[in-house]
Structures are given as structure tokens and as C-alpha cells.
């Protein structure tokens, strides 16, 4: 009964937070890309465009839901929600933090703690193809069908090197449970190098291969061939509008969060900090404090008239956040969450950064990268790691 | 709880299986088959065979059925139409199906009368570690033979694909 209650509470907490995050990643993406390209990005809805996601949601909800003629109605309707469902369920097995004591109850930070966590994510990733393939096929549009075919071929091809790259760190931690994988990466070597699979496991090649595959799996630039605007208009979702279109969007961002979380859990040590724990406790406080200081300073010496009010307001928010991390009992929990989401956030930023920087690959190049480069490299990495694990019995 | 889950997903599996035969459109049939496989994966989890469940999701519904759907879409087949020869099958099909089911259930009840019924949660050796251990010790020979079989299939596929190129 306890377990059921805790699970319900956790779900009620995580589900709205996830939806809000999905909406705000879009805002962050638009802002970051705008600044890379020397624009300001969303600016007019709320201070610095902060309410833009809400405006977008209202726009998408009230927009006419256009259904073209000749579509297969059932699958046209089901495809976006199928895709979103498989994307969102993947979040369930990701552990955000260690097991903590809340009012005497042992609580895992994260929804489900299952033995086959990683396989579950891989399985759902494979199922996610259905959403895209069905959308493209049922739209009765040749561009959409081309996009769907490309997407299916791409996702099936990249799943192989991805799984091989993921297998190498699993050899070291000897478990498929993401929580156990993270727990084996605790501690430091020589007191300074964090014991992550990336560093002490020498998984740099595996990590790079995994990240390249992650870009292809989530259909992101430079591998966004399924929705290549210059060739396919918008690819598999060309005929979709209103909330169905939004569902595809949310599924894509949710998949991004999942692949980044898996990278964090398997290569980057999950919630374990990059600096020794004595220092790590104060890093979030310091970061938020410095940000608050900056905001106060620029609010006082404002260039734009609005900044006089908006900057100090967020300065106060950041200062409060900095102090919250110092509360005993709550602080350590927030600290591990900070490190986990910090790493995931950095990887998400990397995704956006790449989108703003790189052009799109050609389709034959995309397939060549997967089969002629990534696959052999990932296989060699796996064999080498297996040898080392047997030799040194790490 | 276990019983409720079992009944739900067993019902879904059977409903999807019946739907698969009833649907006229190949894509609908293929997706009903996916439904059957996913509900079977849930039943595996209920029986404690976690690894098999995950493999079912990854391999069958994630890879093989995607290829099926892929091929159906590429061929762009429409809904099936009843041909004239289908008349006999139409009349004989249902009685034959009933006979087949009767024989199958008779054989199964006879063959398994000595076995004990399964209890949910009684079996715990279905995790990835246990399955891997069994595969590489007790079932090593069948495992390796299967891999050679797959290698032969790959060689065959390569040969066929090359033939078309010439």
C-alpha cells in the first residue's frame, strides 16, 4: 500500500513537471539558437519571452485541427499520441537521485526501479518508430511517406551502434538496472578524478558514438532527414496541425531528455558530482548566488528600461534557490538532483548548440556513417572493453 | 492485482489476435499483431520472465514488426478483397477452426494434466543475469548454432541483394 501511495505521489509530481519542462525546452532552444545567430529570440510575451510557451500552447490548442482528404482516419488520429506515449513512458525508469529517507519512508528518486531499465528504454525507442511511420503513411502524402520511410530506416540502423555503445559501460557495472549502474560510478580515483565510466572506464569513444547515435535516434540536426525542410517540406508531420502537431513536438523533446538521461546515467555518473563531495555541496549555492549577483548588478545598471524590474525579480528567485540548497536534510537531496539535471541540461544544451551550428547530412552519408563508421567502431570498443574487464576484473 | 493485470492483458491479447484476422487492411492486421506481442510481454513480466519480456519488446515488436509494417507501406497494398475462390474457405473456415481449437485444447489438457498450475510471483529466475548464465553454460551449443544460422541468413540475404544489382 505504501508503495502504491508513494508511486502515485511521484507520478503526480513528475508528470506536470515533465510537461512544463517540455514546453520550456522549446523556449530555451529558440533563445539559444537566436543568440547563436545574433538575434534576441522570443521577447514580447512576458519578460524576455518567458511566457511564450504558454502562448504557444494556447495557439496550438485553439488552432483549427485540419484533416486532409484521403487519410486513414484511425491511424492519422492515433499516430501522434502513440509516439508521445512511447516517449513519455521511457521517463519512468530513469533514476534522478539516490534512495532517500522522506518522513521515515525509503523513496527512490525516480518512478520505477526495474531490473531491465535500459532494455525497457531501448524497447520503447524501437516502438517509437510506429508513431512516425504511421503518421507518414496515413497522411496520404508522398512527402510524409518519404519522411516516415527515412525515419524508420534511420532509427533501425542507428539502434545497432547505439546498443553496442551502451553495452560497454554495462559490462563494467554488471547490471541493467540504471540505479545500480549509477551506484557503481560513485567515488573518486586519486581523490580527484570522478569514477565515471567516461573517465575511469575509458569510455570516451563509446560516449561519442552514443551521442552521435542519439542525434539520429531523436531525428535532430544534423540527422533530421525525416523532416528535411528543403526536400520534404516538413516530412512525416507535414499534414498535421494543432495539438497533433504539438504531440510530435513533445515526443521529440521527450526523447531528447531520455537519451540525455541515459548518457548521464551510463557515462557521466548520474547524480554523482564531478568535484569531491566536500566542495560539491556548495557548488549549486555558489552558482545560483553568482547568478543572483549578476542579475542584481545588471538590474541596477540597466540598459533596457524593463530590466530594472525583471532582473532583480529573478535575482531574488536565484538567491532563494541558492539558500534552499543549504537547508539540512533537504539540501543533499536537492544537491544530487542538481547534479543529475545539470548534466542532462548540459547535454540538452549541446543538442541545441549542434542544431545552431551544423548543416544537415545527405541521406547516403547518414547511412554510411552508421554502417561503415559507427558500427565497427562501437563493436571494436565493446570487444576491447570486454577484454579489459576480463583482464583487470574491474 | 496480478490476476486483474493478467485478465486485462490476456483479454487485450486475444482481442488483438482476433482483430488481426478480421481486419481487411494489412497495416491494421500488422498493428494488431504488435498489440498481441506487447500484451504477451506484459504477461511475461507477470510470470517473472523480465528478460524475455524486454527481448519481446525490443526484438519482436520493436524490430521485426517495424520491418513488416515498413514492407507493407513500401508495397502500398490496399485493403484485401474477397476473391471468387474464397467461397469454400468462407464456408469451411469457421467449422475447421472450431475443430482445430477443440483438438488443440484436448491435446494440451491431456499433455499438461501432470503439471502444476503456475503461480504469479513464484518464479524469479527470469532476470537478465540468470538468463545470460543459462545461455552461456547449459544452452551454449544451441545458442552458438542459432548464431551460425543467423550468419547463414545474412550471407543468403547478401547474395540475393547482390543478384538484383547485376
Question: Topology, please?
Answer:
The complex is a heterodimer of chains A (about 400) and B (about 170).
Chain A: H1 2-36, H2 52-62, H3 73-89, E1 99-102, E2 105-108, H4 117-138, H5 142-173, H6 178-183, E3 188-189, E4 193-194, H7 204-217, H8 229-232, H9 242-266, H10 277-280, H11 283-300, H12 307-324, H13 330-357, H14 363-392
Antiparallel strand pairs in A: 1-2, 3-4
Chain B: H1 2-22, H2 26-46, H3 50-75, H4 86-111, H5 128-137, H6 140-165
Helix pairs in contact in B: 1-2, 2-3
Key words describing this protein structure:
heterodimer; A: 394 residues; mainly alpha; two-stranded antiparallel sheet; two-stranded antiparallel ribbon; 14 helices; globular; B: 166 residues; Four Helix Bundle (Hemerythrin (Met), subunit A); 2 domains; 6 helices
Structure write-up:
- The complex is a heterodimer of chains A (394) and B (166).
- By secondary structure, chain A is mainly α.
- In chain A, the strands form two sheets. Chain A has a two-stranded antiparallel sheet. In chain A, strands 3-4 form a two-stranded antiparallel ribbon.
- Chain B is mostly helical.
- Chain B contains six helices and no strands.
- The model of chain B has no long low-confidence stretch (mean pLDDT 83).
- In chain B, α2 packs antiparallel against α3.
- Chain B folds into two domains: 78 residues, NADH-ubiquinone/plastoquinone oxidoreductase chain 6, subunit NuoJ (Four Helix Bundle (Hemerythrin (Met), subunit A)), CATH 1.20.120.1200; 40 residues.
- At the A-B interface, α4 and α5 of A face α2 and α3 of B.
Amino acid at each position: 500500500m505504501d508503495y502504491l501511495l508513494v508511486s502515485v505521489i511521484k507520478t503526480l509530481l513528475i508528470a506536470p513537471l515533465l510537461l512544463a519542462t517540455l514546453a520550456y525546452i522549446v523556449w530555451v532552444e529558440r533563445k539559444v539558437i537566436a543568440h547563436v545567430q545574433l538575434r534576441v529570440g522570443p521577447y514580447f510575451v512576458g519578460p524576455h519571452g518567458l511566457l511564450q510557451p504558454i502562448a504557444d500552447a494556447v495557439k496550438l490548442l485553439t488552432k483549427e485541427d485540419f484533416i486532409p482528404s484521403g487519410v486513414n482516419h484511425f491511424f492519422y488520429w492515433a499516430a501522434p499520441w502513440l509516439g508521445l506515449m512511447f516517449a513519455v513512458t521511457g521517463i519512468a525508469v530513469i533514476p534522478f537521485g539516490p534512495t532517500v529517507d522522506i518522513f521515515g519512508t525509503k523513496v527512490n528518486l525516480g518512478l520505477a526501479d526495474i531490473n531491465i531499465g535500459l532494455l525497457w528504454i531501448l524497447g520503447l525507442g524501437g516502438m517509437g518508430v510506429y508513431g512516425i511511420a504511421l503518421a507518414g503513411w496515413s497522411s496520404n502524402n508522398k512527402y510524409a511517406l518519404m519522411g516516415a520511410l527515412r525515419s524508420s530506416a534511420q532509427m533501425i540502423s542507428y539502434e545497432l551502434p547505439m546498443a553496442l555503445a551502451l553495452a560497454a559501460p554495462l559490462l563494467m557495472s554488471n547490471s541493467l538496472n540504471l540505479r545500480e549502474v549509477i551506484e557503481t560510478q560513485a567515488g573518486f580515483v586519486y581523490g580527484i578524478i570522478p569514477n565515471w565510466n567516461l573517465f575511469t572506464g575509458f569510455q570516451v569513444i563509446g560516449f561519442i558514438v552514443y551521442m552521435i547515435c542519439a542525434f539520429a535516434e531523436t531525428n535532430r540536426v544534423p540527422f533530421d532527414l525525416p523532416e528535411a525542410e528543403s526536400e520534404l517540406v516538413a516530412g512525416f508531420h507535414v499534414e498535421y496541425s494543432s495539438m497533433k502537431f504539438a504531440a510530435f513536438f513533445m515526443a521529440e523533446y521527450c526523447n531528447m531528455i531520455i537519451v540525455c538521461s541515459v548518457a548521464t546515467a551510463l557515462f557521466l555518473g548520474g547524480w554523482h558530482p564531478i568535484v569531491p563531495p566536500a566542495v560539491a555541496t556548495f557548488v549549486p549555492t555558489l552558482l545560483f548566488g553568482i547568478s543572483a549577483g549578476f542579475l542584481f548588478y545588471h538590474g541596477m545598471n540597466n540598459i533596457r528600461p524593463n530590466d530594472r524590474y525583471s532582473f532583480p525579480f529573478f535575482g531574488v528567485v536565484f538567491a532563494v534557490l541558492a539558500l534552499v540548497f543549504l537547508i539540512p536534510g533537504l539540501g543533499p537531496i536537492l544537491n544530487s538532483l542538481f547534479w543529475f539535471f545539470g548534466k542532462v541540461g548540459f547535454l540538452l544544451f549541446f543538442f541545441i548548440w549542434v542544431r545552431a551550428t551544423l548543416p544537415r547530412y545527405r541521406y547516403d552519408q547518414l547511412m554510411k556513417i552508421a554502417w561503415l563508421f559507427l558500427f565497427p567502431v562501437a563493436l571494436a570498443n565493446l570487444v576491447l572493453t570486454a577484454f579489459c574487464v576480463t583482464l583487470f576484473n574491474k | 492485482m496480478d490476476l486483474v493485470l493478467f485478465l486485462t492483458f490476456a483479454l487485450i491479447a486475444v482481442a488483438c489476435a482476433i482483430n488481426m484476422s478480421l481486419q481487411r487492411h494489412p497495416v491494421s492486421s500488422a498493428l494488431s499483431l504488435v498489440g498481441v506481442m506487447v500484451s504477451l510481454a506484459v504477461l511475461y513480466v507477470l510470470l517473472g520472465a523480465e528478460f524475455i519480456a524486454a527481448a519481446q519488446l525490443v526484438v519482436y515488436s520493436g524490430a521485426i514488426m517495424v520491418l513488416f509494417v515498413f514492407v507493407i507501406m513500401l508495397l502500398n497494398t490496399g485493403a484485401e478483397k474477397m476473391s471468387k475462390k474464397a467461397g469454400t474457405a468462407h464456408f469451411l473456415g469457421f467449422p475447421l477452426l472450431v475443430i482445430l481449437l477443440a483438438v488443440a485444447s484436448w491435446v494440451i489438457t491431456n499433455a499438461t494434466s501432470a503439471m502444476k498450475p503456475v503461480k504469479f510471483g513464484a518464479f524469479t529466475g527470469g532476470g537478465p543475469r540468470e538468463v545470460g548464465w543459462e545461455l552461456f553454460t547449459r544452452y551454449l551449443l544451441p545458442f552458438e548454432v542459432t548464431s551460425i544460422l543467423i550468419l547463414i541468413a545474412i550471407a543468403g540475404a547478401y547474395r540475393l541483394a547482390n543478384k538484383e544489382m547485376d
